[in-house]
């Protein structure tokens, strides 16, 4: 190894592949974070194409590892008919090409009937990006400044989910939404640049991009087992949580460009349909939340109640019933009234609850059962309304009690409502150093609590706990590659012992692939053990970007004919000590990413 002579160089000369500032401040390796998107299952199928033709074309054109995960995902995501698209490459330019081709297919609205196509073209462009929970503070910025900058400069709405990604540990969803495609793509790369900055400042590491399924604890596992048994009983099963909305309320729940309803769909399947008339008014709508466990449906209901309460406050302010000088009422404590729709054919299961009355009275909400309506055909309507009135959390608790009577396998008490930390709690947390990160924008969330930040802000910097397991194909670490220092005379000796054949195979970037045991130049080299010859060829090529970024020469060394060196495949690294160290790190990252994105046939 040659000695480190950085101090002898002129200021700014630096090492090959290392920027000027890195020499003065210490080596900083720029990581290109993988792009991880959540799309509907139908969009994922378009990205794969018939017999995998589409995804193969994306890989071939861009040189990027692309994989579509669906069957490997947790049940929570499968129920919502979503899939994850992973794209990873050491070169950002190649990654941009691949993501652009992916979005062409995700947003493809051709082939639809004329009326549906016209409606689809009027729909906004939405995109869901997966980011590590640890990155929440850096993405939002101090007081939400980073999010506001994207909204104001690019014209793209940004929603950072308060909740962790369903079924996936230590990850959260960021939704981008605009009327045109351009602002969404620009916002996507702005966020990817933020992730790269956080990685460079050591707030994020490769393992933070690993997709791991959240594993249930003993109590959660027992409830899940009871839930499965209950759902299998005849005449039982999940009861969608349905709320009857007036016309104005329905518009509020949908939100601008569908932003509010999209937020609900982060948690559960949500549809807003016309109410059956009669017995209901034709102008009314039914918001239905289904295909999720009851705690998740309750979370969605709390958001609906919050939207309705916000609308009521705005109306009261316009009518002069509330002054801007009045103290604001905390979320969860505002007055609201809704009509919950329950199945008429299972009403007998609720009789004991209404007759006793005590469990519902304990919620603090006023409960009024409306008469069972009739359809035009003269038969009882399928759904019957129960009016709930009170504070938001009182109404949510009453709805839980009614649904828990229909789904008795659920826990008697609902999960607690998320409460943002008070100013004193936030200052105390910052005083203890919690949530602080490196880099612009607060890194790990040191800029204090922002409403957009939500739950992720309180969990910034939390380690990935043991109650997780890797999602198959979603970023599990391969066995670490071995790095072996090998002097030239040792390689020459191995060559004579194994009778290596002197053959060189061309690699697209001009590097070479040589047989194990074949000698190289007189410079000291490192040999890295990699899983197979294909991995060695990939890492030595332009597609990995390692050689250019680290300023080294890479050669894939194939096993020589007749060699008895076992099943080792080696990658030879030549360069200065600093460059080789940089290359070793980048190669480890690439091996992890390549393993995470490696796809089976046609997927």
UniProtKB/TrEMBL annotation:
The keyword Cell inner membrane is assigned to this record: no
This protein's record includes keyword Transport: no
Ranges for region Disordered: 1-25, 408-522
Keywords attached to this entry: Repeat, RNA-binding
Bias kind Gly residues: ranges: 440-449
MF (Gene Ontology): RNA binding
Feature: compositional bias, Basic and acidic residues: 1-12, 428-437
Transmembrane residue ranges: none
Residue span(s) of domain K Homology: 31-107, 123-196, 237-407
Matching InterPro entries: KH_dom, KH_dom_type_1, KH_dom_type_1_sf
Feature: compositional bias, Polar residues: 485-522
Protein name, UniProt field: K Homology domain-containing protein
